Amino acid sequence: MIARTPLAALGVIGATAVVAALAGPASAAGRELRVCADPNNLPFSNQEGEGFENRIAELVAEELDAELSYTWWAQRRGFIRNTLNAGACDVVMGVPAGYELVETTAAYYRSAYVYVYRADRGLDLRSIQDPRLRELRIGVHLIGDDGANPPPAHALGAQGIVDNVVGYMIYGDYREPNPPARVIEAVAVGDLDVAAVWGPFGGYFAKHAPVPLAAVPITDTAAFAPLRFEFGMAMGVRKDDRALLEELNEIVERRREDIHALLDEYGVPRVAPGAFEEREAP
Amino acid sequence: MLVATLLLLAHGPAEGDEAVAELSRDDAQWVMPAKNYASTRFSGLDQIDIENVGDLQLVWTFSTGLTPGHEAAPLVVGDTMYVVTPFPNILYALDTRDGSLRWAYEPEPERASQGVACCDVVNRGAAYFDGKIFYNTLDNHTVAVDAETGEEVWKTRLGSINRGETMTMAPLVVKGKVLVGNSGGEMGVRGWLTALDAGTGEIAWRAYSTGPDSDVLIGDDFEPFYPQDREPDLGVLTWPPGRWEIGGGTVWGWISYDPELDLIYYGTANPGPWNHNQRLGDNKWTSSIFARNPDTGMARWAYQWGPHDLYDYDGVNENILIDLEIDGAERKVLVRPERNGHMYVLDRVTGEVLSAEPYEYITVTRGIDLETGRPIEVEEKEPRENEVMREICPAAPGAKDWQPSAFSPRTGLIYVPHQHLCMDMKAVETSYIAGTPFVGAEVEMYAGPGGYRGEYMAWDPVQGEKVWAIEENFPVWSGTVVTAGDVAFYGTMDRWFKAVDARSGELLWQFRTGSGIIGQPITYLGPDGRQYVAILAGVGGWAGAVVSAGLDTSVPFGALGFVGAMTDLPEHTAAGGTLYVFALPEQGPAQ
């Protein structure tokens, strides 16, 4: 079920609201697992605790026998600086493995950019070099960080596929639930033929759309290196927090199957480790 | 006596627009950040001159208690000084006699707006008109505050932080209209300039920088100089379909006004947020200059100095309106030290580029083609995604960023604080925003040839050449003022407030401030008839975010690559805003 609760977003983008004890009774030792998360971005997290990163945080808190608390902050430029590195929390649940701003755990899942299209279209689209991409109306997310955008926007542009590409700001309108989801909704209602988005978005919203949608990992991407379409995802801690890092790595290892079962529940597509896996190892 | 004069001007027959133009000519006061509509930042005061400036003394100070970058110019109206702070955008009214605090107005902008601003939560200042102080808040409101009482007169919301918009620029008030623009091109914001009724705060017109002519306010009166600019709806047709809707071209810099031609002039920022191979075409009217009618907003001419920007050159720099003798003829010109390192001299009646000489080290262009007005690009420097692009000069902030220049009619020279930086770009940094991992551009900036990062120079706009230059260790991110005493003032990020000889560039005096300077100096007469000089110190901004935001110096591509060039700034300054006011020692017997 996609959360439709409108959030008082204006107060939430940068607000530091601490919601304690989503993970059950306080531990005897009084340990606290302080997590920073986006209050409005399913399937990852929201303030109601409905995202898979919320669920994994609960799992980790349980393993550490700790009480779970949150600092909510929109995951935009400055997120790490204003949260983890400002000492507001000790862990962020999802960052790319090897992300330079933090120390990352071992990747606990690996996903890929996917095509999302209506199942009733019979498109069977997989390759980023499929000639039909010149005709289809394709939605992509935009970030605009120094002109850098998600890999589909670049790979399509490099092939001269431009006029039929439609951009959706990843930031969206923060007053609405899950702002990055607009591009998937456009596929469902037929405004777009296909969306090329990061796997967890695509898989989750495809699963919860009012019409059946397919979410298929994008292939034939090697020609566009150093652009990457697959990323291992990890937890992040402050660079000097070796003790917590080791505890988290142990939990990732021990509970991998449970974590993957959770990700299945959320429809998160996963791919096998590829050529970049070694580079991402912490 | 001075107060009486002011009251007469504000409430006498020369009410409104005439009055503010009059006030801007009164060197006792400083009623708009650029000093006057021509944006010369020149003061006719000459009590402080090259002979005695060495005796300048600190008179009083005022702490804002804030650590973001302080970019604003103070205003002086009568015997009151007005200071706007960075977020939370407090307006302080201070008695110029002794710095006593008269009142403070707190607009209480949304805290969340801090998370939306791209590069520190700065504010570039306020403007005075008809008994009110006008300025913008980071969360997209323009406010009018009673200059006497500090009461809010009106407050108008112009944009939404939820869509990535913020406002940081200083308004200009022309013919009873408060002109303001937006920031946030990287967030998919479509740029605009908006005119508000100074009395009521109601929106009179809004001119977008992209889109159909009806939105850009291009009509029958539009007469651009270059033929390629004369087709209809270029704000749509120079983009792939629909790209203009989130095309950038924000308006966060400076506006000038020529009362005789009755035209306002301002620049638009670079295109965004698309990667450049997804926005084929010239991307009009980003990286452009507009001349518009202030009553209706309708465009008279436009000139795009940076078609299809590749390097993040935000074209919002100041436009200095002066009359020069060029090739034996008197020309009404607009001089603009551009991001791309060229000093543009335009005919401000027609929009023709008369000259565009390089004033900085440039690798990305081989000059400007005066036939077409377009830069001659160096193809090898075009960013390619699978390659490391080295020695792109100027770097992304350009040869000069927002920090405004000054012009002295006495010396005929333009005084330009600017930077001297190059950059490398490579697509290898793994980034993460709102749940999406991607490979970002790793931009690393560094000092240009010679190893220095900033320069304060004097430029002859007629000869098109540099007359003298002072190399500075850090980018010169402050504004500047030049006076009839032939003294020019500017500040450095390593905490020096400097006075130099406007003719020779010789350093005459300097004062060590508490934090680095990125503010804009002003000068005025106090009620005691003495000349004062004021500057707001407090390092930060895009260049200084490494200090004001405490960025990690081991991550060189922080602050869009600026951190790499500024890793040693924390060794020279801490953050913190303080206003400093200086004067010569009082005459007469010692007290």
Descriptive overview:
The complex is a heterodimer of chains A (282) and B (591). Chain A contains eight helices and 13 strands. Chain A is α/β, with parallel strands linked by helices and 282 residues long. Chain A has two domains: 9-108 and 233-270, 3-Layer(aba) Sandwich (D-Maltodextrin-Binding Protein, domain 2), CATH 3.40.190.10; 110-224, Periplasmic binding protein-like II (D-Maltodextrin-Binding Protein, domain 2, 3-Layer(aba) Sandwich). Chain A is globular. The two termini of chain B are 25 Å apart. In chain B, 6% of the residues lie in helices and 37% in strands. In chain B, the strands form ten sheets. A five-stranded mixed beta sheet of chain B has the order 1-32-33-34-35, with no helix packed on it. A four-stranded antiparallel beta sheet of chain B has the order 2-38-37-36, with no helix packed on it. Chain B has a four-stranded antiparallel beta sheet with strand order 3-4-5-6, with no helix packed on it. Chain B has 591 residues and is mainly β.
Overall shape of chain B: it is globular
Write the CATH homologous superfamily of the largest domain in chain A: Periplasmic binding protein-like II
The secondary-structure class of chain A comes to alpha/beta
- Strand content of chain B is 35-45%
Proportion of strand residues of chain A:
15-25%
Q: Using only CA atoms, what is the Rg of chain B?
A: 22 Å
- Give the N-terminus to C-terminus distance of chain B in angstroms: 25 Å
Characterize the biggest β-sheet of chain B: 5 strands, mixed
Helical amount of chain A: 10-25%
Question: Would you report the number of β strands of chain A?
Answer: 13
* Quaternary structure annotation: heterodimer
> Into how many domains do the coordinates of chain A divide?
2
What is the top-level CATH class of the largest domain in chain A? Alpha Beta
Strand order of the largest sheet of chain B: 1-32-33-34-35
Order of helices and strands of chain A: EEEEHEHEEEEHEHEHEEHHH
Question: Which CATH class of the domain at 125-316 in chain B is shown?
Answer: Mainly Beta
DSSP summary: helix tally of chain B: 5
What is the first-to-last residue Cα distance of chain A? 35 Å
Q: How many beta-strand segments of chain B?
A: 38
How many whole angstroms does the radius of gyration of chain A measure?
19 Å
